[in-house]
Design a protein that fits this description.
The chain has 14 helices and six strands. By secondary structure, it is mainly alpha-helical.
């Protein structure tokens, strides 16, 4: 066990495999990062730790008292207890709690009404090495402050400091990798119809179900030849006809009565995370590259439908999107592909004249 684990006020966590340690002394502002490794540089680490404690004790002793309601921590507590927050999807609630709690740990003692645009930009840029997380941080702060203004929790003249903050360019503009036809075929060659792995694959590919929905789907969702459920993320109802390949996988697999997908212990998966981890192992076993993840099957399904001529509104119905913007990405890509093929065909005809 790390020696750092025995020291009070030391908070340790991992981000992208890298270990971070901070000293956070209740109500004394932002934590101070400990840069030395307690395993290999313990004398330097312990000296840095004691210096951080002294600094935070000084800050705490010279910080004017603030009414709890006026602090960022007080605002956060009121927000997560609100009806608006509790109406969000459970997965969204969990993500927002984790993201905002990092800020509460560092800034919970401060008056949130004094936060300005420059502060939000700094909070965004603090984690700019993960642009998606940085953009979500701004988004979460903006939602928090919008709630405070709408419910008059905030002072009358308070304005949302996170409004209009530009997004950072994501590391991967396309997001999750869309499985290629070759990758789909490779998986199907390895996991045949009748295996639980093939059923999970078919369930997500032919319905567009996210992992957060797939682990809960079962015979009870099967109505008149369709699968019908309310998406956990959007709370929108979707009704998708059961594709023959999916029906074959259902019929050939010894699935559960409550949920189709079962663990090796013949129990339903307990969470979306547990199903996602299990799926990743099945992709590795099939020899697929690391870029292949469960959500990529949803994108592969949307790509297939768009290339077959599905309209934006048809894609919206299947995938539960509330705006045509997401569907348009797929229809426009499919249109470009068809036009490129037609153009090359014309060129070939011309060259053969």
């Amino acid at each position: 066990m790390s020696k750092a684990m025995h020291l009070p006020h030391v908070h340790s966590f991992k981000v992208s495999g890298k270990r971070y340690r901070y000293v956070r002394y209740g109500g004394a502002g932002k934590g101070i990062r400990l840069t030395y490794d307690p395993q290999t540089e313990f004398p330097l680490f312990i000296a840095q730790y004691h210096d951080a404690i002294r600094q935070l004790e000084y800050i705490k002793a010279h910080t004017p008292a603030v009414e709890p309601k006026e602090t960022f921590a007080g605002l956060y507590k009121a927000y997560v207890a609100s009806t608006e927050f509790r109406q969000l999807a459970h997965s969204t609630q969990d993500r927002k709690r984790r993201a905002l709690m990092y800020l509460v740990d560092d800034h919970g003692w401060k008056r949130y009404a004094q936060m300005n645009r420059e502060h939000v930009l700094q909070l965004r840029d603090d984690i700019s090495d993960t642009p998606e997380a940085a953009n979500n941080r701004v988004k979460d702060l903006s939602a928090l402050f919008r709630w405070a203004i709408a419910t008059r929790y905030a002072p009358a003249k308070f304005q949302n400091p996170a409004a209009g903050i530009p997004k950072l360019k994501p590391l991967n503009a396309e997001g999750y990798h869309t499985w290629t036809p070759e990758e789909l075929l490779q998986f199907e060659s390895h996991w045949t119809v009748g295996t639980m792995q093939r059923l999970a694959y078919a369930l997500m590919l032919f319905t567009g179900a996210r992992v957060s929905d797939a682990y809960r789907l079962g015979p009870g969702n099967q109505i008149d030849g369709c699968l019908q459920w309310v998406q956990q993320k959007t709370q929108r109802e979707v009704v998708v006809p059961i594709h023959p390949a999916l029906q074959d996988a259902i019929d050939a697999t010894d699935h559960g009565d409550r949920a189709y997908l079962m663990t090796q212990y013949n129990r339903p998966f307990s969470s979306a995370k547990s199903l996602s981890n299990w799926c990743t192992k099945s992709y590795i076993a099939a020899g697929l590259p690391d870029r292949c993840v469960a959500h990529g099957l949803r994108k592969a399904g949307a790509t297939r439908l768009a290339e077959l001529g599905a309209t934006e509104h048809q894609l919206m119905s299947v995938f539960g999107w509330s705006s045509p913007a997401e569907a348009r990405r797929y229809t426009e890509a499919a249109s470009r592909k068809r036009m490129a093929k037609a153009a090359i065909s014309l060129l070939s005809c011309k060259e053969n004249e």
